Amino acid sequence: MTCLPGHTEKKLGLVIDLDTCVGCQACVTACKEWNTGGHMAPLTDIDPYGGHVDGVWFNRVHAYEHTTEMGGRTVNFPRSCLHCEQPACVTVCPTGASYKRASDGIVLVDEDKCIGCKLCSWACPYGAREFDTDVGVMKKCTLCVDRIYNDNLAEDDRVPACVAACPTSARHFGDLGDPASAISQLVTNRGGVDLMPELGYKPTNKYLLPRARTERAANVDAPALEPIKAEGGFLGWIDRMLSN
Amino acid sequence: MHPAFSVLFFTTATGAGYGLLALLGLLGGFGLIPADFWLGLVGMALALGLIAAGLLSSTGHLGRPERAWRAFSQWRSSWLSREGVASVATFIPAGLFGIGWVLLGDSGGWVAVAGLLAAAGAVTTVCTTGMIYASLKPIAQWHSRYTLPAYLIFACMTGSVLLNALLQGFAVGSTVVVTGATLATLAGWAWKLATWRYNDRLKIPTTANTATGLAGGTVRSIEWPHTEENYLLKEMGFRIARKHSAKLRRITQVLAFAVPAILLAVAFASQWPFAAIASALAAISQLIGMLVERWLFFAEAKHTVTLYYGR
What we know:
Order of helices and strands of chain B: HHHHHHHEHHH
CATH architecture of chain B: Up-down Bundle
Number of helices of chain B: 10
Shape of chain A: elongated
CATH class of chain B: Mainly Alpha
Largest interface: A-B, 70 and 59 residues
Number of domains of chain B: 1
Number of helices of chain A: 7
Oligomer: heterodimer
CATH superfamily of chain B: Formate dehydrogenase/DMSO reductase domain
Helix content of chain A: 10-25%
Order of helices and strands of chain A: EHEEEEHEEHEEHHEHEH
Helix content of chain B: 55-70%
Largest sheet of chain B: none
Distance between the termini of chain B: 12 Å
CATH topology of chain B: Formate dehydrogenase/DMSO reductase fold
Number of strands of chain B: 1
Number of strands of chain A: 11
Radius of gyration of chain A: 25 Å
CATH class of chain A: Alpha Beta
Largest sheet of chain A: 3 strands, mixed
CATH topology of chain A: Alpha-Beta Plaits
Radius of gyration of chain B: 21 Å
Structural class of chain B: mainly alpha
Strand order of the largest sheet of chain A: 10-1-11
Structural class of chain A: alpha+beta
Strand content of chain B: under 5%
Distance between the termini of chain A: 91 Å
């Protein structure tokens, strides 16, 4: 049913740190690699080696220049499904293919029920859903449901592929519904924000903004170098003669 | 938003079809239009034909049309599902009304009840179509108080202009229907102008700043995640040049409103067959004009995802 659960036991989601993201695209590649064989497989590529490359990706990294009176800075910006608390992509679905899980809040698509009307992609303000023209159904991020509960993986690996791949630990995974969880603490401490809060979708995923820039250089506070001791012998004599 | 022809044709054809069905159901059911077999047959065939063609066309943009039956299940939350249910349910009283009014030549009694129910179903279906668009928050031009009335006004307008053409064609034109169709056309024109005025002055609170969470200053896209256009840009990133938009707005006004209004005035003042020819041309011009209007409705609608791409 495409009616939303009134309450979810957990609010699993991601926290993305725009301060440390370097835009390396490792999360994008890891996501594609895992998911093209995972729950929503395949992530079809159309004309992958031709002039009009197209295909389904769950995670895309943009780059922006943010200019304020403090100056400009480059911000790398990963964009994927935010697993909203009020996902209009689910309620607009006419077939019941889209649903939000009451257990953990993950928004999923049942590919066997999807008729490919694309209305859910119109209803998502974030561009999280991409249509697979080859299979004729809508696809989206699953928060790697087939990793995070996967007993065949080592416990450390039971995180979404994008989180596991991030070399700068800019991506964090956890229960945002539990205020005591490490990820919730991170959001509180860093003042994590919602994207497009004015639209009322109440995204579960949060973004941590780049830290404030400081005017001065890093204060190393190392002691001054000691004076060089006068060299003796022949080289010392040359040094003294040349220094005069 | 990308203007897919199947959706443009669907909304224009079903709008006109449901408008005509509602008017036939009300006027025919209560005996205000004579229960003539051929008039009724052509009228109901036109109304139900437009509806059926539109509904079939709407399945044309589905990725898996063979599963379309599933779309009747989620009426509790989805306007698209409600539209499906309402459109199919309307066929029941419409069919009964057709049997009573066209085949049996009756009006009043149960035929009037069926006509009334068919009209109610038609209005409900048009409302659900309008709400599909009006409920989409990411598209500010659609998520406005202008959208739902527009669908109702345009259905009434195209339906009444078709009804007038039908009656004039059978040489039973009425000054009331010609006047009504003219007034509906002028109302449609006024509503479209008001909508464009509203959209042109729209201050959209969602910006590249709120989309990225980067408050203050300017946020400029310097690199896309991909080099070619992807699904998001093809479907939601459709752009139309401002000069083309202005020209197409003029074409819409001429074909959908001005020309039909003038031809209806000609029909008002002339006799059969000239009145019939003018009325038929008014209907044809208006339907072509409404296809252009619907194309602009999509082309001028801006989805918030385009903010991520600096568009």
